[in-house]
Structures are given as C-alpha cells and as structure tokens.
UniProtKB/TrEMBL annotation:
InterPro entries: HARBI1-like, HARBI1_animal, HARBI1_dom. It comes from Strongylocentrotus purpuratus. PANTHER family: DDE TNP4 DOMAIN-CONTAINING PROTEIN, PTHR22930. It is found in: Cytoplasm; Nucleus. Keywords: Cytoplasm, Hydrolase, Metal-binding, Nuclease, Nucleus. GO terms for cellular component: cytoplasm; nucleus. The keyword Cytoplasm applies. The keyword Metal-binding applies. Signal peptide: none annotated. Transposase-derived protein that may have nuclease activity. Does not have transposase activity. This is Putative nuclease HARBI1. Its cofactor is a divalent metal cation. Residues 150-300 form the DDE Tnp4 domain.
Length: 345
C-alpha cells in the first residue's frame, strides 16, 4: 500500500512539474554603462527614459498575467532593432525573449510611436511658423520664401515577403525598397514624412499624390519647397536650372544646392542613427513602413533632446531621379525666373 501511495505521489509531482511554466530572466538594459546604452539604443540613458515615458501609457499591459513584458523592456527591444539593424534573432537573444516575441514587440512599439507622428513631426502652417522658416532658410544662402526641402530616399527590403506585386518594389537601382518622401527644415528636423510607396515609384509622383503636395496645389500652404531636378518645376516647388547659361542662373543653382543639401544630410543622419533603415529590413512592406515612420518620430525626439551623434553622419550618397525639366508648369517657370532676376542677378 505504501508503495502504491509513493507512486501516486510521484506521479502528481511529475504532472505539477510539467504544468509549471518556466520564464527566463530578462536582461536589464539600464544596468549597462552609459556608453553601452548609447551604442545599443542610440539614445543616452536619459533619452531612453524620455522615450519610455512618452509612450509608457500606450504600452502598459492591463495585467501582468504570463509575465507580460513591461513598457521599459518593450521600448529597449525596439530601440535596439532600430539602432543596430540586427536580425530579429540577435535582438531577441540580447533581451532574453523569443524571435516571435521580438517581432510582435517591435511592431507594437512602431505602431505606438506612429500615433505621435502629427504631434512630433509638424509642418509650418501658421504665418508665424512660415515666416520663421523662411528667415531660417534665407540665412543659409539667400534663397527666398523657402519653408522646406524635399527628397525621396529608398529603404531597402531584404528578403521581405512582397507577394504577387513584388515587381513594383524593385527600384531603378536594382533592389527592392520603399521610396520614402521626407521634408526637413534648417534644424535637421523632419517636418513631413510619407512611407508608403514601393521603390519603383518616382519621387515626383509621390509628391503630387501626397497630402502635403495637395495642400500646395490647392493654395492652402504658403511658401516654397526646394527639390532636385527629379521633381517637376511648379509654382511652389523650385528645382535647379538645367544647363544654366547666365551668371544669375549659376548663382541661383549654387544657392539652391547649398540650401537643399539639408535634406541629404537628414537622410544620412536618419539612416546612420537607425541602422535598420540603412541595412534593410526583412519585413513585410506594411510593417517596414511603420518602422520607418517610428524612426522619423525618434529622429525628431533626439533633435529636441539634443541627443549626441555618435559620428558625423554627413550626406547620403545616392543617385538623383532622372532630370524632369520637360515637366515644367509655365507659372512655375515664371516664378523661378522672377526669383533669379530679383535675388541672383
């Protein structure tokens, strides 16, 4: 009888042991040194805490059942992926979680940061904001009325599941990408971003179909944008003069290039700070677009906090879209000629 009871007791013990869930200890990023924190997450300790506090209420789980990840760890997991561009397995291993959990967390944090887009990425709309932007741009090289500079930058998709329409993601440089429209100000802050279009889409088409482009077209927005010669010349979007023939046209082109270089610097800074945008992502396009927008939000947060740059990121080196001087709106040409005559004669 005693032997039977012993067997039953051992059986109950084994069943209880099998039912017990074993959770791994997770790393504590804030216990790292300051240098390691910045290297792994691209924010200082205080910067990381600012980002955490910014979205903590939106990430907080209603229950701690199954040891749900705290908001702090969710943010660190996403920041590490953004910063290093590492594969999900690497980010998961560092933080003691599974690959699938890392994927879900990165998506959740990206979506959450995206909800702050209109709060943190702002286009100048009031006359006071427009006037301030125009003065700041004019002080660079004397180009008048500018409130922003625009360009498209390609974010590589590496082995991403693209579906039956994958050919539209192949850009003219020969790789799959999301063509992302970015507009910036003189302080290297992003004032507009549109991450939605596949890589084969021309910069000019993206702008013409964007909300910000439509506000200019409908005369709801004051001021000018500067774009490279891949854009169509319009009354509100000034492009360089192809084959300048006069000293005034040459001076205009120099001022245009000196002013417009801000957007190439911003693209370089954004991609080097958040290496997932530089090295490419093995993500479905929709998820990749969420990550791109999240990184843009974090870029502006870093600028507001005056976070240090690890290196001088310089200018993004890329080929411009093919020249489109054959796409000129007459009143756009008239405005460009007026600017040349009045400011660069």
């Amino acid at each position: 009888m005693a032997a039977i009871l012993a067997v039953l007791q051992r059986h109950r013990y084994e069943r209880a042991r099998r039912r017990e869930r074993i959770f791994r200890d997770r790393s504590q990023p804030l216990e790292l040194g300051d240098g390691d924190i910045f290297r792994k997450y691209r924010f200082t300790r205080d910067g990381c805490m600012h980002v955490i506090n910014l979205i903590r209420p939106l990430l907080q789980h209603d229950t701690q059942r199954n040891q749900a990840l705290p908001p702090e760890l969710q943010v660190f997991i996403a920041l590490n992926f953004y910063a290093t561009g590492a594969v999900l397995d690497s980010t998961a291993t560092i933080h003691g979680i599974t690959r699938s959990t890392a994927s879900r967390v990165i998506h959740r944090v990206s979506v959450t940061l995206g909800t702050l887009k209109h709060e943190i990425i702002k286009f100048p709309t009031t006359m006071e904001e427009v006037n301030r932007a125009q003065v700041d741009f004019f002080n660079i090289s004397g180009f008048p009325q500018v409130i922003g500079v625009v360009d498209g930058t390609h974010i590589r998709l590496n082995g991403a599941p693209l579906g039956p329409g994958e050919h539209v993601y192949m850009n003219r440089k020969g790789y799959y990408s999301i063509n992302t429209q970015i507009i910036c100000d003189t302080n290297y802050k992003i004032i507009n971003i549109l991450a939605r279009w596949p890589g084969s889409t021309h910069d000019s088409r993206i702008f013409q179909n964007s909300r910000v482009g439509q506000t200019f077209e409908d005369l709801q927005q004051h001021g000018l944008l500067l774009g490279d010669s891949g854009y169509a010349l319009r009354p509100y979007l000034m492009t360089p003069v192809l084959n300048p023939r006069t000293p005034a046209e040459q001076a205009y082109n120099r001022a245009h290039a000196t002013t417009r270089v801000r957007i190439e610097q911003v693209n370089g800074q954004l991609k080097h700070k958040f290496r997932c945008l530089l090295n490419g992502m093995q993500m479905a396009p929709r998820r990749a677009c969420k990550i791109i927008t999240a990184c843009a939000v974090l870029h502006n947060v870093a600028k507001d906090l005056k976070q240090p740059d690890e290196v001088d990121f310089g200018i993004e080196q890329h080929e411009h879209e093919p020249d489109r001087d054959d796409h000129i709106v007459d009143n756009g040409l008239a405005i460009r000629n007026t600017i040349i005559a009045n400011y660069f004669h």
